Fold these 2 entries.
Entry 1:
Amino acid sequence: EAQVTQNPRYLITVTGKKLTVTCSQNMNHEYMSWYRQDPGLGLRQIYYSMNVEVTDKGDVPEGYKVSRKEKRNFPLILESPSPNQTSLYFCASSHREGSNQPQHFGDGTRLSIL
Amino acid sequence: KQEVTQIPAALSVPEGENLVLNCSFTDSAIYNLQWFRQDPGKGLTSLLLIQSSQREQTSGRLNASLDKSSGRSTLYIAASQPGDSATYLCAVSSGYALNFGKGTSLLVTP
């Protein structure tokens, strides 16, 4: 089954404790992206990757890192999480941004930073 | 910067009604426009994608239109059902990102 898998689905942690949210897709998609969703602000892009070893900042990259060492994986790293990073995070993938292929989204990761 | 607006923010209709959700965007230089559905606690499910060269797309009871020159799209849902209750998100692709509206929360009552 074609899917985007995020882990963990839920995480409560404390300020400053490094964490990684994993994202994996099984559709051989070139393009992957991370979004955060906040009440009243909607979905905003954090980082994206056009292909292996190619990443770039989205609208709200501060406090986040990403890597794309393999085509299927695109982890989101919070080196020193802070309470303002409490949010619902989504990973998405598609064959190529700007193409006419729909983006596929994971089920989301709800992060709470205390 | 592309800005996407969805009206109304919330909508409640009785089962069986036909309804229209609206989406407007500020920059007409787009690749495509997607409509998504989001259920509480779930991810986003792509409903329809309209290429910039197209005027509309249909899937079952859903029909989405695109007027690029005026920066508008509509999602028409025919014969609504309680199972259609969800948040509907419009997203515009201008290259390397999807710009999302804040969504319309739809409640279809039996």
Entry 2:
Amino acid sequence: AQKITQTQPGMFVQEKEAVTLDCTYDTSDPSYGLFWYKQPSSGEMIFLIYQGSYDQQNATEGRYSLNFQKARKSANLVISASQLGDSAMYFCAMRAPYSGGGADGLTFGKGTHLIIQP
Amino acid sequence: EAQVTQNPRYLITVTGKKLTVTCSQNMNHEYMSWYRQDPGLGLRQIYYSMNVEVTDKGDVPEGYKVSRKEKRNFPLILESPSPNQTSLYFCASSSGTGGGEQFFGPGTRLTVL
């Protein structure tokens, strides 16, 4: 069975500082994808970034980057120069099509509640 | 605009009263899923569908039904809701092509009294 672990239930960070949100995963599937989603207080799920298991480079999207360490089964999200609007829940998720997860479905971690302080 | 829509967005009902939450996507995606989100548990998959007339159980299917008669629609049916089904529900769709993003609907907040 596949599993996603987010060990930080909550984080407080000063505005403009960089933030690292931890995510470790467990799967025996050689082909998988890792995702990060942001959920603000309004409730919608906002896609941030994706990393494929065979991608050679770490994914980047604007201020977001994914620190992918395959041997350690780690997929941490890094937010550079944090802003007040970054305050939200952040979920790490994995798709491993051949290990269950419901045919293209995602297995989610429990999330990290990030609060950016001015 | 590419989107997944859900209705209703908010619903308060009573135990045992059948209800349906609709989900529709306009991206011609083959894969659609339903998730529920509960505090401290993240999102968990209820049911999924790989194409029209092809559905299967996810991790927490008890008490739910789904159907996929058209590619764009994937309704979630609670035939006899119970208070433990009070939750935030998300519908999602994807093309299923490797790194394809899962697009989420806006969510339906359900309270069963």
